[in-house]
Amino acid sequence: MKSSIKFLLNGVPKEVDFKTSAQLYPHMTVMQYLREGLKLTGTKEGCGIGDCGACTVCLAERDENGNTVINSVNSCLILLGMLDNKHLITVEGVAKNGVLHPVQKSLLERRGSQCGFCTPGVVMSAYTHYINNKEFTRESVESVLSGNLCRCTGYESIMEALLALESPSGVGTKVKLPQLNCEELVFTRGSSSYIKPYDLESLLKYKAEFPMYEMVSGASDVSVKRKVEENFDAKIIDISDINELKRVDIQGKNIIIGSNLSIESVKDILSRYYPGVEEYLSAFASLPIRNKASMAGSVYGASAVGDIMPMLLAMGAKMKLSCAGSSRVVDCREFNSGYRKHILQENEIIESFIIPVPGKDRVLFLHKQSKRKDMDISAMTFCIGFKLDKGFIKDVLTGYGGMAPIPRPSPILEQFLTGRLFNEETFTLAKDVVAKDFSTISDMRGSAGYRMMVAKNLLIKCFNEIKRGRDGSGN
Ligand SMILES: Cc1cc2nc3c(=O)[nH]c(=O)nc-3n(C[C@H](O)[C@H](O)[C@H](O)COP(=O)(O)OP(=O)(O)OC[C@H]3O[C@@H](n4cnc5c(N)ncnc54)[C@H](O)[C@@H]3O)c2cc1C
Ligand code: FES
Ligand code: FES
Q1: What is the DSSP track for 18-72?
Q2: Which CATH number characterizes residue 96's domain?
Q3: Atom of ligand 1 nearest to the CA of 300
Q4: What is the per-residue pLDDT across 326-343, written as a single tens digit (0 to 9) for each?
């Protein structure tokens, strides 16, 4: 058991011992640590809740297989205790010996900065892409900057500055990491506690002992909640570095995905099996959020408008729920039990998602309806998967978000479509079925009438897209 963490900060080894550093807590955000603890104020504080990107930093760490991965992350969301064994690079560490990094130089020369408030965040997003040796194309820059707001320069000059860059090869692999030390971190001060286990067995033991402690994985929900509630006391189990919860495995006809693998990694893996996932999950929050946020964190929140559960429902996914000494597998359809409620017991965790490998006749349509492409919560979501057998629809699975107090399937629609011919008439008739199944609500994201109209129209969009895809593939 240890009371300290060790990491690299801009290449310099750092040790924070929480027993002796009275001003520092493992549950303070990395942004608070940088700005208030170290007076490294290059990292800016904007919204404090993951929306603006002014606080973006670069984080190098080992993935579940021990490989070094380097990601942009929001320092206003991740917690100081999460830095253990990692290398944090801030905007102060980008220029070397007074010489600007090519990203900074290009932004300067091509007028990619005016007031400069967003610039450190823009630099860190682009720098992370650069040291990962990735190409700067219009499409990749849009994704890289999906979490960075600029309110005065105008995005085009930032875009031009980044498009003018060329990535040299071989730089990313040079980012060092400290020696790995997986001793558990245990911290208590006053009414606050922070426990960081490094393996599943230990986590389940702590969860049994402290069922009321809040687990933190990507911290994108927990940190926003704490900011809104302004509550600095915390009782936290940090599960962000438990490799068993990030592993991916193919077992028989199923893809097993660790519950706390990042959404960005889930996107990459699932889109190999379900091509539509790439576009669908690219609209989830922003790249820095997706680099840390997890599927478990999303379904735990049980939001009616979360993007993950409708997708899982349409894939026919199951979840493995575990506690010390036992596990159970439940269908995702059984997970939500009411508004913001689910069946997870206090001593249980979500260990993994079990997602069927689709057969070659299976099709999947995923659509998130939101006002903006990036960084927007959905008004409603429609996901549907089915098998096409000689022109007939079979084995239909649906997932709707934003149409009811919980994300849920439409069994009536599934029944209606089953056995019918795959043609426009079938999907036109299905509009009335959807209208009967849901009585939607009006809120700031959309009126009930709007939601229902979109839900009906999406049936036709679904038909057209699947037809186009099959015509194009010659099936
Ligand atoms: C700016 C911003 C934009 C967002 N955009 C979107 C969006 O477009 N679409 C969308 O759907 N959501 C969005 N979200 C919501 C949020 O990012 C997701 O819900 C995210 O997936 C939460 O995952 P996390 O790992 O960060 O959760 P955390 O904050 O770490 O944890 C949240 C909760 O989940 C529980 N939990 C985590 N892992 C487990 C586990 N293995 N077993 C049991 N319980 C667990 C924790 O105990 C905690 O109570 C957004 C959030 C922010 C801040
Ligand atoms: S301060 Fe706005 S995203 Fe962190
Ligand atoms: S330069 Fe002013 S907000 Fe971007």
Answers
A1: TTT-TT--TTSBHHHIIIIIS--TTS--SSSSSSS-TTEEEEEEE-TTS-EEEEE
A2: 3.10.20.30
A3: 34
A4: 999 999 999 999 999 999
pLDDT, residue 376, reads 78
- Domain assignment of residue 198, yes or no: no
Cβ-in-10-Å burial (0-12, 13-18, 19+) of 208 comes to: middle
Which amino acid is present at 100?
A: L
Identify the nearest ligand to the CA of 107 by its number: 3
> How far is Cα 33 from Cα 20, in angstroms, rounded to an integer?
15
Question: 3-state SS of 380-433?
Answer: EEEEEEEEEECCEEEEEEEEEECCCCCCECCHHHHHHHCCCECCHHHHHHHHHH
Ligand 1 pocket, residue 347 CB under 6 Å: no
Strand partners, 368: 381
| Last residue within a domain, chosen from 179, 210, 227 | 179
Closest residue CA from atom 23 of ligand 1: 297
CA of 216 to the centre of ligand 1 (A): 9
Query: Is residue 369 within 6 Å of ligand 1 at its C-beta?
Result: no
Check pocket membership of 217 for ligand 1, CB cut-off 6 A.
yes
Question: In Å, what is the CA distance from 346 to each residue of 206, 214, 359, 462?
Answer: 12, 10, 36, 39
DSSP symbol at 284: S
Domain that holds residue 150: 1-179
Give 341-378 pLDDT, tens digit per residue: 999 999 999 999 999 999 999 999 999 998 877 777 88
Q: Is 332 in the pocket of ligand 1 (CB under 6 A)?
A: no
224-277 pLDDT per residue, tens: 998 877 666 789 999 999 999 999 999 999 999 999 999 999 999 999 999 999
Q: Check whether residue 329 and residue 457 sit in a common domain.
A: yes
- Whole-prediction pTM: 0.96
The tokens describing 249, both together, are 């495995």
